[in-house]
Every structure is written in C-alpha cells, then in structure tokens.
Amino acid sequence: MPNTLLAKFPMATSTSGVSGVSRDDRRDAADVTALIRCAASGEHPGVAAQRLCAAFENFRHDDSPDPGSPAQLARRVLAALAPERRAEIFVHLTESAQVATAQAMTRREVTALVSAMPHDDRVDLLKRIPDECRQAVMPALAQAEREDIRRLSSYAEGTAGAVMTSEYASLNPEMTAREAIEKLRLEAPDKETIYYAYVVDAARGLTGFVSLKDLILARPESRVSDLMNREVIFARAGDDQEEVVKTISRYDLLALPVVDEKGVLVGIVTHDDAMDVLHQEHTEDMEKFVAIGGSHDGQAYLRTSAFGHFRNRAFWVVILAALGLVSGLIISSFESTLASLLILTLYMPMIAAAGGNVGSQSATVVIRALTLGDVKPRDALRVFLKEFQVAAMLGGILALLAFAKVSFLSHGAVLPAGVTLAKVGFVVGLALCAQVVTATILGAALPILAVRLGRDPAVAASPSLTTLVDITGLLLYFGAARIILGV
Length: 487
What we know:
Layout: H1 3-6, H2 29-40, H3 45-57, H4 70-79, H5 83-90, H6 95-104, H7 107-116, H8 119-128, H9 131-137, H10 143-153, H11 160-163, E1 170-171, H12 177-187, E2 196-200, E3 206-211, H13 212-217, H14 224-227, E4 235-236, H15 241-251, E5 255-259, E6 265-270, H16 271-289, H17 306-333, H18 335-340, H19 348-372, H20 380-409, H21 421-452, H22 463-485
C-alpha cells in the first residue's frame, strides 16, 4: 500500500510489527490466542465484543499507537477472524471503540471490514471516523457500495432514512411461491431479515408484503400477488425516528418499510435498530430532564472527560442559578415580613419542596403521555382540568397536615400582637395548597407548550420547572402572609 494512503490512518501499523498486547506488562501470547478462540467460537458476537470493550474501559489511552493499546489488541483479534464474523463482532463494539479500532487498521483492513458490515452500520462508522480516513477508504470500495453509502448518508440525522438499512428482501408480484423461496434462499446471507419480503412493482414502488411463513405454507405454484398483504404499514424517509420506533412498537413489527416521497421502497428499519434508537432517545430525554446539554450521544461515563461533563452541565446550571437569584430578590422584598414574623422561615422549605415534588410528578406523567401519543397538544384543557382535580385533592390533604404541623411544632412560639398560631397555620396551609395547584398546572403546561413550539418536552421539566415553582411558591407564601396576617 502506498505510504500516502497509509498516512490517512495515523495509527495503522504492519501486523508483523506488533509484538505485544500490553503497554508495560506484555500480555502472554496465550491470552491473545484465547481471545481469538472465543471470538471465533459460536458465542454471540455481542459477548465477544464485550471482551474487547473491557480492554478499552480499563485503558485511558485507547487511541495510542503503542502495539499494546486496546485498539491494536482489537485489531489483532479481528484480523484473525473470517470477514463476516469480524463484522458481526465489530458492530457490537461501543462507538468510541469502533472509531479507535478502525483508526488502528490499514486502509485495506478497513475497506474489507466496511464491505462486510451491514449497510446502515457501515454508514454510521464512516460518519464517525475522521474525514481524512473516510476519504481514504471510499475510493477503495466498490462502486455499488459507494453509491449505497452516499444515498444512506444523504438523509438528515434523526429521520427514518438515517437509521434504515437497504438490506431488505424484495419480490416480484408475478413470482410463484417456489421462485420466491428460492430467491430468498440465495439472497438470505446478504439481507438484514427475510422473515418479511416486500413486493415491489417495476418502478420499485411498494405494493405489499409477504411473510416467509406464508410462502412456505402456500402451494408452490401460487403467485406472490395472491399471497401478499396489500395493507402495508410504512414510514416516510423524512419521518422522525422516534415516530418510527412508536410505529414498530405499536404494531409489534419485526421491520418497518421506508419509502420516499414517490412511494418507492428505499429501505427498512429493523427491530434491533429501533431498540438502538429507543436507547438513544431515552438517554437524550433523561439528560434533558435533568438539564444536561451536549450531544446526548450516550458515550460511556468513564470515557467522557471531566471537562466534557462540565461543558454539558455548565450552561443550564448557570442559567438556573441566575433564575435562582429571583428567589433571593423576592425574599429580600419581604424582609420586613420575615423580621416581624420569623416563624414563617421555618416552613419555607416545606412550601418549596412540595411544589417541586408535585410539579415534577405532573411533568413526568404528561411527558410520558405525550411521548406515547396518549395526549396531544389539543388536549391541553382536558389535561389541565384533570391535573387541577388531582392537585386540589393533594393540596387539601397537605394543607391539613401543614396546619397540624404548625399547631404542634410551633406551640409556644412568640408571635406579634394580633397574630395567632391558628392564623399562621392557616396561612401556611393555604399557601401550600395554592403552591401544589399552581406547580401541578405548570408541570403539565410546560411540556405541552414545548411541543406546541416544536421543542422536546423534556427540556421544560425538572430543574427549570423546580426553579420556576420556587419563585411562584415564595410569591404565594409571602403574599398570603402579608394579606392575612398584615405583616
């Protein structure tokens, strides 16, 4: 291979030059042999991949060119396997391990690996590796592979087109069941799944689908057009990937066909790819729910630098801290009230905590309903009414408990003239009830408003909601004390 092409892969070294598998304490050759033996056995490729990923998790510098680095270890193990087995194990490695291992390979090794990988997985890999590496690999691929990669890469991230694969089984409607089974038998090794075959016309328009079971049970001379199901559930290439996952889950599908704007079949989203999307969406929603920014790519916690964690968290922490200053200003404006009735400070944490708790509960329930499609933004009034009813019952119970708490815990407290403990208990209970109602409505309203504005509802929950509820709670608390107690 020319040195100029090898330079595109800065960590690539000749296999013959690798003499060890550890940086300081050289691994015994038997250890590498054992890894290769396990990888070449019939165990699930995900299990074999976990063994290799363990090396990356326990090694800080997986991008080191040292022969003992985990990237070189993974390269040596994979190089000893058959191309198909190599690809099966590689796709189960973590994203960072895939990139490091690919960069440790020569261009010829990466090209062979990419050619053997499933179509959607190889596109993902080529998007992750550095541009210079990708530009070195692409010319070495077959023309059909390059066109397929360019086509799948053209779809926007987060859409059905970006997560689909072009490895689907298609049949002509004029085929007989015998011909269809023979075609599937020949094509099965190169297809993601053959449990469902999609029937297309001359223009590759999707007209129906037929299951492998139906083909096997049918009379050999039966035509596919007579066996196929014409009611096809499909997605558009530009549909949001989260909607695709919902469709697969709702109808319990093994795969979902994807068509373009002309109705031409361009790929399928398989169940395992849907699970990957679900994991990604769950990670993103969970991090947004606790106000963590960044790319939400699900990178391993220990493999993310401290500065990376800081960068993801700092923005929202600073914004929420700035909003928290508003709470301080409110307390400062009611300084005279607190000075004349110090007992009010004892119950401020209870008011704030109750609002944050019920607000988060309401937001979580509504976000889940929005995500599952049980609730639409047009159902806002019905949601508010139901949440108001729930909040009124919760607020009533908590108000009674707060009144009892004030009566027993603050018995004997020194109060200004004209102020009784019963009045203080009434103020605390009333403010707590009002806080519960407003926090619950806010918790339901913010996610719905976010959806109406085209944003993820998770960004309107948790810390941002808690900060807003703290502000409203203080206003309600001190406002009620000033009006009822006259302080």
